[in-house]
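hi! just following up on the protien thing from before. the input was this:
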Amino acid sequence: MYKKVFILFSCLSINAVAISQDPLAGQTEINKEIAGNFYKDLWFSNNTDKYIKYVADTYTVHDIGDRKGVTEPAVEQKNIADFFWANGDLKPKFDFQIAEGDLVATRWIASYEPKTLTGKIFIGSKPIPIINVLRFENGKIVEFWNHRHDIDTNQTMKYVLKGLLIGLLIALVPSIYAFRLRRKFRKMMQQ
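and the predicted 3d structure came back as:
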Protein backbone atom coordinates (compact mmCIF):
# COMPACT_ATOMS: atom_id res chain seq x y z
CA MET A 1 0.00 0.00 0.00
CA TYR A 2 2.70 2.47 1.01
CA LYS A 3 4.67 1.55 -2.06
CA LYS A 4 1.71 2.45 -4.32
CA VAL A 5 1.20 5.77 -2.53
CA PHE A 6 4.92 6.53 -2.82
CA ILE A 7 4.87 5.76 -6.56
CA LEU A 8 1.78 7.93 -7.04
CA PHE A 9 3.34 10.91 -5.22
CA SER A 10 6.59 10.41 -7.14
CA CYS A 11 4.74 10.56 -10.45
CA LEU A 12 2.80 13.65 -9.38
CA SER A 13 5.92 15.44 -8.21
CA ILE A 14 7.77 14.58 -11.44
CA ASN A 15 4.85 16.04 -13.45
CA ALA A 16 4.78 19.13 -11.23
CA VAL A 17 8.52 19.66 -11.75
CA ALA A 18 8.15 19.17 -15.52
CA ILE A 19 5.31 21.69 -15.67
CA SER A 20 7.15 24.23 -13.51
CA GLN A 21 10.26 23.90 -15.70
CA ASP A 22 8.28 24.67 -18.87
CA PRO A 23 9.01 28.39 -19.35
CA LEU A 24 6.03 28.85 -21.69
CA ALA A 25 3.44 27.30 -19.35
CA GLY A 26 3.19 30.40 -17.17
CA GLN A 27 3.28 32.78 -20.12
CA THR A 28 0.58 30.77 -21.90
CA GLU A 29 -1.79 31.30 -18.96
CA ILE A 30 -0.90 35.00 -18.87
CA ASN A 31 -1.60 35.25 -22.62
CA LYS A 32 -5.01 33.58 -22.11
CA GLU A 33 -5.84 36.13 -19.43
CA ILE A 34 -4.72 39.03 -21.66
CA ALA A 35 -6.83 37.68 -24.54
CA GLY A 36 -9.86 37.31 -22.26
CA ASN A 37 -9.47 40.88 -21.01
CA PHE A 38 -9.04 42.11 -24.61
CA TYR A 39 -12.46 40.69 -25.51
CA LYS A 40 -14.07 41.89 -22.29
CA ASP A 41 -12.91 45.48 -22.81
CA LEU A 42 -13.32 45.91 -26.57
CA TRP A 43 -16.18 43.57 -27.44
CA PHE A 44 -18.06 42.67 -24.25
CA SER A 45 -18.16 46.24 -22.94
CA ASN A 46 -17.54 49.54 -24.67
CA ASN A 47 -14.07 50.20 -23.19
CA THR A 48 -12.36 50.45 -26.56
CA ASP A 49 -9.82 53.04 -25.36
CA LYS A 50 -8.07 50.19 -23.53
CA TYR A 51 -6.94 48.63 -26.83
CA ILE A 52 -3.40 49.89 -26.24
CA LYS A 53 -3.07 47.55 -23.21
CA TYR A 54 -3.53 44.50 -25.42
CA VAL A 55 -2.33 45.20 -28.96
CA ALA A 56 1.25 45.92 -30.07
CA ASP A 57 1.88 49.21 -31.91
CA THR A 58 1.39 47.32 -35.18
CA TYR A 59 0.02 43.86 -35.72
CA THR A 60 -0.55 41.54 -38.67
CA VAL A 61 -4.09 40.49 -39.49
CA HIS A 62 -5.12 37.36 -41.41
CA ASP A 63 -8.80 37.87 -42.06
CA ILE A 64 -11.34 36.21 -44.28
CA GLY A 65 -11.74 38.00 -47.58
CA ASP A 66 -9.05 40.30 -48.94
CA ARG A 67 -7.33 41.23 -45.67
CA LYS A 68 -4.60 38.60 -45.50
CA GLY A 69 -1.18 39.38 -44.06
CA VAL A 70 -2.00 43.08 -43.68
CA THR A 71 -0.04 45.08 -41.11
CA GLU A 72 -2.19 47.58 -39.24
CA PRO A 73 -1.69 50.08 -36.42
CA ALA A 74 -3.06 49.03 -33.02
CA VAL A 75 -5.77 51.69 -33.14
CA GLU A 76 -7.50 49.74 -35.93
CA GLN A 77 -8.82 47.26 -33.33
CA LYS A 78 -10.40 50.21 -31.49
CA ASN A 79 -11.84 51.57 -34.75
CA ILE A 80 -13.44 48.22 -35.64
CA ALA A 81 -14.97 47.81 -32.17
CA ASP A 82 -16.13 51.46 -32.17
CA PHE A 83 -17.92 50.89 -35.50
CA PHE A 84 -19.95 48.07 -33.99
CA TRP A 85 -20.67 49.94 -30.74
CA ALA A 86 -21.72 53.06 -32.70
CA ASN A 87 -24.25 51.10 -34.75
CA GLY A 88 -25.74 48.84 -32.08
CA ASP A 89 -25.32 46.82 -28.92
CA LEU A 90 -23.03 43.81 -28.66
CA LYS A 91 -24.01 40.97 -26.37
CA PRO A 92 -21.27 38.40 -26.95
CA LYS A 93 -20.39 35.34 -24.92
CA PHE A 94 -17.35 33.07 -24.66
CA ASP A 95 -17.61 29.47 -25.82
CA PHE A 96 -14.09 28.32 -25.00
CA GLN A 97 -10.45 29.30 -25.09
CA ILE A 98 -7.40 27.14 -25.74
CA ALA A 99 -3.74 28.08 -25.76
CA GLU A 100 -0.40 26.66 -26.69
CA GLY A 101 2.86 28.55 -26.43
CA ASP A 102 2.39 32.08 -27.73
CA LEU A 103 -0.98 31.31 -29.41
CA VAL A 104 -4.43 31.74 -27.86
CA ALA A 105 -7.56 30.61 -29.72
CA THR A 106 -10.92 31.91 -28.55
CA ARG A 107 -14.30 30.85 -29.86
CA TRP A 108 -17.06 33.28 -29.06
CA ILE A 109 -20.53 34.20 -30.27
CA ALA A 110 -21.14 37.84 -31.20
CA SER A 111 -24.82 38.63 -30.68
CA TYR A 112 -25.63 42.05 -32.07
CA GLU A 113 -28.65 44.33 -31.95
CA PRO A 114 -28.28 47.05 -34.58
CA LYS A 115 -29.63 50.53 -33.74
CA THR A 116 -28.92 52.25 -37.04
CA LEU A 117 -29.98 51.61 -40.61
CA THR A 118 -26.32 50.98 -41.50
CA GLY A 119 -26.11 48.32 -38.79
CA LYS A 120 -29.37 46.70 -39.87
CA ILE A 121 -28.38 46.56 -43.54
CA PHE A 122 -24.72 45.57 -43.34
CA ILE A 123 -24.48 43.66 -40.07
CA GLY A 124 -27.91 42.30 -39.17
CA SER A 125 -28.94 40.82 -35.85
CA LYS A 126 -28.11 37.13 -36.16
CA PRO A 127 -25.51 35.74 -33.75
CA ILE A 128 -22.15 35.21 -35.46
CA PRO A 129 -19.79 32.43 -34.36
CA ILE A 130 -16.19 33.69 -34.40
CA ILE A 131 -12.86 31.99 -33.81
CA ASN A 132 -9.87 34.27 -33.28
CA VAL A 133 -6.32 33.04 -32.93
CA LEU A 134 -3.99 35.59 -31.36
CA ARG A 135 -0.20 35.41 -31.28
CA PHE A 136 1.55 37.21 -28.45
CA GLU A 137 4.99 38.73 -28.02
CA ASN A 138 5.95 40.47 -24.79
CA GLY A 139 2.37 40.37 -23.51
CA LYS A 140 0.84 42.08 -26.57
CA ILE A 141 -1.08 40.82 -29.60
CA VAL A 142 1.18 40.88 -32.68
CA GLU A 143 -0.77 38.62 -35.03
CA PHE A 144 -4.51 38.11 -35.43
CA TRP A 145 -6.29 35.34 -37.37
CA ASN A 146 -9.98 36.07 -37.70
CA HIS A 147 -12.46 33.36 -38.70
CA ARG A 148 -16.08 34.54 -38.77
CA HIS A 149 -19.09 32.67 -40.05
CA ASP A 150 -20.22 35.60 -42.23
CA ILE A 151 -22.70 33.44 -44.12
CA ASP A 152 -24.98 34.00 -41.10
CA THR A 153 -24.81 37.79 -41.51
CA ASN A 154 -25.94 40.40 -43.97
CA GLN A 155 -22.36 40.50 -45.26
CA THR A 156 -23.48 38.07 -47.94
CA MET A 157 -25.83 40.79 -49.26
CA LYS A 158 -22.85 42.62 -50.79
CA TYR A 159 -22.24 39.60 -53.02
CA VAL A 160 -25.92 39.42 -53.94
CA LEU A 161 -25.96 43.14 -54.81
CA LYS A 162 -22.68 42.86 -56.72
CA GLY A 163 -24.08 39.93 -58.75
CA LEU A 164 -27.31 41.84 -59.37
CA LEU A 165 -25.45 44.91 -60.62
CA ILE A 166 -23.21 42.84 -62.88
CA GLY A 167 -26.27 41.01 -64.22
CA LEU A 168 -28.06 44.30 -64.88
CA LEU A 169 -25.01 45.70 -66.65
CA ILE A 170 -24.76 42.60 -68.84
CA ALA A 171 -28.49 42.83 -69.63
CA LEU A 172 -28.23 46.56 -70.32
CA VAL A 173 -25.76 46.18 -73.19
CA PRO A 174 -28.03 44.07 -75.46
CA SER A 175 -31.02 46.19 -74.40
CA ILE A 176 -29.31 49.37 -75.61
CA TYR A 177 -28.29 47.61 -78.82
CA ALA A 178 -31.88 46.40 -79.40
CA PHE A 179 -33.26 49.88 -78.71
CA ARG A 180 -30.85 51.42 -81.25
CA LEU A 181 -31.75 48.78 -83.84
CA ARG A 182 -35.43 49.46 -83.26
CA ARG A 183 -34.94 53.19 -83.84
CA LYS A 184 -32.90 52.46 -86.94
CA PHE A 185 -35.59 50.08 -88.22
CA ARG A 186 -38.34 52.70 -87.63
CA LYS A 187 -36.36 55.30 -89.58
CA MET A 188 -35.98 52.84 -92.44
CA MET A 189 -39.73 52.11 -92.41
CA GLN A 190 -40.60 55.83 -92.52
CA GLN A 191 -38.57 56.40 -95.67
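Confidence is low (pLDDT under 50) at residues 12-19.
Residues 26-159 form a domain with the Nuclear Transport Factor 2; Chain: A, fold (CATH 3.10.450.50).
cheers
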